[in-house]
Amino acid sequence: MPPLMAIEFLCRVADVINGYLGGLNEDSIKDNFVIVYELLDEMIDNGFPLTTEPNILQEMIAPPNIVSKVLSVVTGNSSNVSDTLPGSTASCVPWRTADPKYANNEVYVDLVEQMDATINRDGVLVKCEINGEVQVNSHITGLPDLTLSFANPSILDDVRFHPCVRFRPWESNQILSFVPPDGQFKLMNYRVRKLKSTPIYVKPQLTSDGGICRLNVMVGMRNDPGKTVDSVNVQFQLPPCILSADLTSTHGTVNILSNKTCTWSIGRIPKDKAPSMSGTLVLETGLERLHVFPTFQVDFRIMGVALSGLQIDKLDLKTVPYRFYKGFRALTRAGEFEVRS
Asked: How high is the pLDDT of residue 183?
């Protein structure tokens, strides 16, 4: 068996369970063991992947909710499997429901990106790249044939497509040609490497002497993306040798948990003055200086901007004579964004 097939199938199982249960962890699987078992029974047959499309699976196995849990307790029937096969089994396109009908035909395309960055203790950007997804929500009558093109597809790297995408048009002209599943799905994943800058900066300064460490962290805008940067959050783990910490900030709130995790919730960065956090850390008895320095994890969100620079050129609908409404959105959030001190 090709090893990548097993890896891809496991990723698909994780995505489906995550979509059904709203999270993938030990507790959620224990609480919904029957549904997980039913999903695996439909997703793999005699050792081969069978049905891995989330919207088709939802027609066969109802997602868990309060009503179904109450009914299973009252009736003793814990099965969520439908008595009838989904319409896609009679369709020539296995990922699409057979002949859906809508009063309003709509397609929404979202660019959802995560910025991964590493900044060393000298403030130099060591790594900065974008991992993105093209998410589509399609509600179109019949069997539509869509084409999606980008204004600058040459910046894309490591692309991965949904099975509905025809590979030849992309290989020859970088055009996505596909018959979409009905509802929401992930059309493609991509990566954009070697970005030159980040939208915000985090500058930590630590000086220690005489058993006391003084900490100062400043956060501000480096490059204005043209949209509001909000949900800014800085988190770091205090070194084990720290006995106590007294930290305050000029903007936002600072919380120190019992496991020595410090969280600075900034929210939206003010335009007039860059917020800062400062304070003192008391070292263990016998230690004069700090020898283990924390790494700062940064989180943020920017609505309406794809920081990779990827731009959608146009979305066309073939084979269907009626008009349809199309909408585009973008969202960038921080992924593994680390600042070393």
From this structure: 86
